[in-house]
Amino acid sequence: MPAENTATSEAFTSARTETTERYLTFRTENLTFGVSTNYIIEIITNHTITAMPMVPGYVKGIINLRGQIVPIMDIRSRLGKPDIEYTNSSCIIVLNVDSVFIGIIVDSVEQVLDIDYSRISPVPANNREELVSGMISVSDNHIVLLLDCETLVNNS
Predict the structure, then answer these.
(1) What does the mean pLDDT of the chain come to?
(2) Which of 7, 75, 119, 140 has the smallest number of Cβ neighbours within 10 A?
(3) Residue 85: DSSP 8-state
(4) Taken in order 103, 104, 110, 111, is the CA torsion positive or negative?
(5) Whole-angstrom Cα distance, residue 132 to residue 123?
(6) How confident is the model over 102-126, as pLDDT tens digits?
(7) 117 φ, ψ to 5°?
(8) What Å distances lie between residue 129 and 2, 103, 146, 149, CA to CA?
(9) Contact of 58 with 73, CB cutoff 8 Å
């Protein structure tokens, strides 16, 4: 009898993990974004960025992360918002998207959420943002926009 309970428990756990995914939420320009933790390598709070010539304005430069050269993009600038001074809560989220490393500067990191795929809504067509793949309402009618990492890397 205990073996049957274990098998049932394992099947339930397996089914549950297939319908949810963990997202790290961050703030930029008074918006909350979520990025799948499957892409996140690490979060850096203090690193020197080397400026590069002849790159788009949203690319702030590169960093050397343990021998790996990582381009750094200011997500605020990439979204067409005005630049601001970086603060103590500003940080770089280093992503690995299809073996391409990229860092995004965000205003602040908030929390990790388990998001059920069935609760993700499409972005309204009249408010379509190319870097947003969906959105979800969390506590207190707070909206989290889900960052489309493949588009971020492929269109940058």
Answers:
(1) 85
(2) 140
(3) -
(4) negative
(5) 7
(6) 999 999 999 999 999 888 888 877 6
(7) -55, -35
(8) 51, 20, 11, 13
(9) yes
CA 61/CA 143 separation, integer angstroms = 31
Q: Give the whole-angstrom CA distance, residue 154 versus residue 148.
A: 10
Pairing of strands 142-147, 31-36: parallel
With a CB cutoff of 8 Å and minimum separation 6, the contacts of 134 are 120, 121, 122, 123, 145, 146
Is residue 6 over pLDDT 70? no
In eight-state DSSP terms, residue 121 is: B
For residue 101, give every residue at least 6 positions away whose Cβ sits within 8 Å of its Cβ, in sequence order, or none.
Answer: 41, 65, 68, 70, 71, 94, 95
- How many secondary structure helices (H) and strands (E) does the chain include? 3, 10
Give the residue among 79, 65, 101 at the shortest CA–CA distance from 28: 79
Rounded Cα–Cα distance for residues 30 and 136 (Å): 16
For residue 67, how many C-alpha atoms fall within 13 Å in the half-sphere facing its CB? 0
Whole-Å CA distances, 32 to 24, 39, 55, 61, 113: 10, 18, 27, 24, 12
Sequential DSSP letters for 15-43:
HHHHHEEEEEEEEETTEEEEEETTTEEEE
